[in-house]
Amino acid sequence: xxxxxxxxxxxxxxxxxxxxxxxxxxxxxxxxxxxxxxxxxxxxxxxxxxxxxxxxxxxxxxxxxxxxxxxxxxxxxxxxxxxxxxxxxxxxxxxxxxxxxxxxxxxxxxxxxxxxxxxxxxxxxxxxxxxxxxxxxxxxxxxxxxxxxxxxxxxxxxxxxxxxxxxxxxxxxxxxxxxxxxxxxxxxxxxxxxxxxxxxxxxxxxxxxxxxxxxxxxxxxxxxxxxxxxxxxxxxxxxxxxxxxxxxxxxxxxxxxxxxxxxxxxxxxxxxxxxxxxxxxxxxxxxxxxxxxxxxxxxxxxxxxxxxxxxxxxxxxxxxxxxxxxxxxxxxxxxxxxxxxxxxxxxxxxxxxxxxxxxxxxxxxxxxxxxxxxxxxxxxxxxxxxxxxxxxxxxxxxxxxxxx
Length: 404
Hints:
This protein is α/β, with parallel strands linked by helices. It is built from twelve helices and 20 strands. It folds into two domains: 2-29 and 275-403, Lyase, Ornithine Decarboxylase, Chain A, domain 1, CATH 2.40.37; 31-274, TIM Barrel, CATH 3.20.20.10. It has helices at 15-22, 31-44, 62-69, 80-88, 105-114, 124-137, 172-182, 205-221, 247-260, 271-274, 307-311, 400-403, and strands at 2-4, 7-10, 13-14, 26-30, 51-55, 74-77, 96-98, 118-121, 141-146, 188-194, 227-229, 264-267, 278-289, 293-298, 317-319, 330-334, 343-347, 358-361, 382-387, 390-395. Strands 4, 13, 14, 15, 16, 17, 18, 19 and 20 form a nine-stranded mixed sheet that branches. Strands 5-6-7-8-9-10-11-12 form an eight-stranded parallel beta barrel, surrounded by four helices. It has a three-stranded antiparallel sheet with strand order 1-2-3. α5 packs across α6 (124-137) and α8 (205-221) runs parallel beside α9 (247-260).
């Protein structure tokens, strides 16, 4: 994704040409970037020989899942819908892990029937429900137990999952009690210690703290786990100022733990695989002049990209056509939704824009379309995958008649 003669391209395709054909707003993905991210992840953790399960919640587009599957990745799912999509994408059942705090009996039964690799349980009640279903089917079910390590991921509080006040996982006391209980279970085989401390993590420190807790708990449990599921959470640099997580440093820290415990590692990356592969192209509808700033009103709204409204997250916005003329007033980029939180970014220095100009909202591959909605009865945008010169429609724009 780059400028060629001041026009923005995604691989070999001019973005303006895409908008002429498919209108705006529109999600555009780069296959080249997706492949590069997967290759980098694999290379850095090669010595660990991990099972890499893509976190489907980050992006559940079926055609993207099929592309990801071709690189040998499995899937981390958190609902019946995600599990069904992973299976439809052709992902092997023995590479699927089912996470989440509130799996229903229907979801558990379906996962057991499909014989997926692991169900990562998060409470005693869930384990008793799995045991009841397994007993009724006269089957042995493989599970993991998710530990809450009480580790601060130093990320946004809305996406922290590893502190004791978070709803995820079990405290040390209850974790050890369940390990002891499951030693005598006839229908459940405990195979995994699972842990996940949050999302958009850019420092190795939280992971190193988490690994120390995991090491201590395994020793205390006196149990041989076949897998340690370390979750995901690896962040990306949205503002291009902070470096991405140091994978090599993280791999070294994991290696130290593996010297003490002979176990296989599972990762559940989502954002680090798909986050920076996509842009959201939007058109300027109006420019509304204010006393100390001008509102740039886009045709993309918080229903298309929820992260800024939900987390206060900021995505870089750049012009589709580069010029050397800058505005003197601050621009506030907002959408058309009837909510004050429908805003994307405030830019103090930005290229002068005109109505009907195109802008690029960057790094929207993760939690972009997967968090999109039909709020205000708005249509979800099309999704396009670019491979060199080839344009693949991987999701058509919704039509109003489909909603009505």
